[in-house]
Each structure stands twice: as C-alpha cells, then as structure tokens.
Amino acid sequence: MASLQQATSRLLTRVSPRSIVHPTYTRHLFSKSVPPTRSSLRTGVYATVFAVSAGLFAVYYFDARSALHRYVLTPVVRYAFDPETGHKLAVKVLQSGLAPRDPVSDDLRLRIKIWDGDVTNPVGVAAGFDKDGEGIDGLFNLGFSWVEIGSVTPKPQPGNPRPRVFHLPEDGGLINRYGFPSQGHAAMLSRLRARIPAFNEPGVNHASLRDGALLAVNLGKNKDSPADAVDDYVLGVKTLGPYADVLVVNVSTVIQGLQNRDLLEKLLKSVTQARDELPTSARKPKLVLKIAPDLDDNQITDIADVIKKSKIDGVVRPAYLINHNKHEQGGLSGRPVKPYSLKALGALRRELPASILLFGCGGINTGVDALDYAKAGASMVQVYTGRIKDELVEELAKEGKTWSEVVHESIERLSLKEIPPVKKPKAGESTVIQLISEAKELHELLDKLGRRMEEYLQRLPHKVEVLFNTCAHCCT
Q: Is the pTM of this model over 0.85?
C-alpha cells in the first residue's frame, strides 16, 4: 500500500499544469444563418391586403350610410342570391352582431312625439323583414327608431312552398307570397326575454331598451284557426304584450273575414280588454290595427267607425297590393303601390280623429316619398331601408320646417274634427246648448259632403269639361 502511494505521488509531480491540453474554440469570420422563410415582397403584399381589408371592414361596420353598402354590398347580395336567400342572409348578419351601424345622431328636424314620448326620427322598419325577432338590435343599430317584428303566430307554421318571393327590377317592386311563416310565440318570447339586461339603463323605459325608439310586435293568426276566431290575437297580447312598446293586430291578409264590421268590433274589444288586463307591473303596450290593402271607400268608412269607438291607438295600411297582373301571384310592394297607399291613407285620415295616429307604408324610396306621406297625415313611415333620412332632412330644410310641423299641420287640416260632448239640457232649461250642438254636427256633415264632392269633381274625365265648353261656345 505504501509503495502504491509513492508511485502515485511521483506521477503527479511529473505532470505540470502547462502540459494539460485545454479544448480551443474557434469563431469563424462568417457564420451561416437560417434563410428567410418569406420574401419581403410577399410580406408587403400580405400587409397591404390586411390594411385594405381592415379599412373596408371599418367603413362597412362603422358607417351604415357609406356608398359601400348602397353600390357594392346590396347589389351583390341582390343579384348573387335568390330573393329569399338574400333576405335570410341579411337577417343572420343582423343577428350575429356584425351588421353595420349608423354613427350619426339624428337631425333634430326629424324628431317627433309619438303618443307619450319622442322618437328621434320618423323612419321605421316594416313587419315582414324580421319575422321571428332574430335581428332586433341590429336593426336599431342601423338607425331605425321603430322596429316591427313578425308577423308571429301562436304555433309554428311553415308558410307557402318556395319559391315565394320575386323581384320586379323593371318596376322597382317585389311580389311575395310567404304565407305567414312563423316560428311561433315560444321562440319569439325566448328571444325577447334574452334581450333584457340584468340592470336597465336609468331613464330608459321602452321595450326597445333605447331612448327615442319603439319596439313593435306584429300579431297574426295560424292558418288552421277558424276564420272568425280572435283567440290567437288575445293569446298574443297576453304572451308578448309585456315585452313590446306596441302590438300590431294584423288583419290584412289571410284573415280578411275579420274586417267584417261585427267581427272587427269583437276583435278590437277582445284585444283591448286583454291589454288592459295585463298585470299592473307589466308594460301596457299601445295597440295598432293593420288593415287590408284593397279596401274601397265604403269599407274604409265602416272600419273607421269601428276604430273610433274602440281603444285602438293607431292604424297601419300595408305596403302591398294583391297582385293579379304579373306572372306570379302574391302581394305587390315597392314603387308601384305608392299612389294607392297615399290615396288610402288620405281616406283614413279624413275619417279618423287626430288622436288616432296613422303610419304610412308603401313605395317609400326617397326623402320626397316620405314627406308626401307626412303631408297626407302620417306620423311615421315604414320602409325596408334606412337611407332616406339624409334626403328627408334636405327636403325639410328646403321647406324650412321640421317633420313634426309638417305632420301637425296635415293632421289639423285633414283629420276628422272631434265634437266635444254636450250635456243634454234638463227639462225646462234653455235648448240653446242643444241647438249649438246640432249646428256643429250639421256643419261637420256639410264639411264632409263638400270634401267628397270636391274629390268627385276631380275624378271627372277631362272630356266632360271639354264638352261643356263646346256646348257653351255653340250656344253663343
């Protein structure tokens, strides 16, 4: 063992520190690098595409009034898809939250008082666009102050078979025979409830959940319900009334039997009673009646008499006519129906007092069209596009008036004048009060007769005037 230790010590003394070889590391002048995975040209192209796409999306999303919508997206959707597919695609985009928004506050000229409160503009979206309440908030974001969803029926029903919507490009119109497709009360109720936030904004008491805007629900009835039954409407009032600012009772299409005077009286009495019986904690919506499009003057007079005796708050005339002249049957809407809608609206305005509001609908494509309805006595208009507001502001500026002033003047001039009730004099008292009352009634009748005579004379053919002039010339 001692010899081993001596040998080890001699070996260590022989090995000097300098004799230990350390590994050396050499750094080359040029080192190899990983080659670039993308060329600078490709990166520039991608960056440009991204910037352009982001800019276009910003224009699309934040400005619903931009030319991109009117001249690019709308024509693409219209001509790339059949009408019904394009319609459903638009509703789905509105539901997704990716629909564009109107960034501009409404001009003060457009503000008007509707019943108990103001709306920021008189332009609403008509029923039939969002049939099942899928895109309510998307439509409000587009700038509408009135969104009417439906018609909704108690039970789901599929409507008519496809195809059932047809464009008329040469006429600027559209034919539809949807046949009231609806997902039913339950589906719409769930969507209306889902909109309600946990905490409401202070000062906002509308079902629209927005200040200066109203949410309307259009109530229909199932095809398999009896023609003269009113239960479907009563159920709609009880189920959906607490979640709407306005309920529209739709008797315009498949249920024209309900426009019989006796049946209409029963219907209006039933729905107003159901509305009044809603719980005190629930919202009490206004009731609006939507009548048929093809009514003659006598029918309009009868319906107006029933409405005056009811608690109905307003009337809508549909934006379509029953079409029998084109290759496809159905409801004709768009530009061709405007003269007929204005005529019917004027007839209604003369038969109803100012307290019952009218809503114009049909062939409204420009600000001038909307102003024509205001001058005929409509408080608001319903359309399928929100682009008329800028044009409407320009037209009002030309006239130096606000929308509210135009409407007020028209209603004062055209509406049926309400005669305040006069107490019947007691026996032995002077009959002067009774004579005054009778004189007022006679004045109203003569005024009404005069207006009708004036309308009749305006309808006489021009040939009659020529004939009279010829006779007068011969006699002289």
A: no
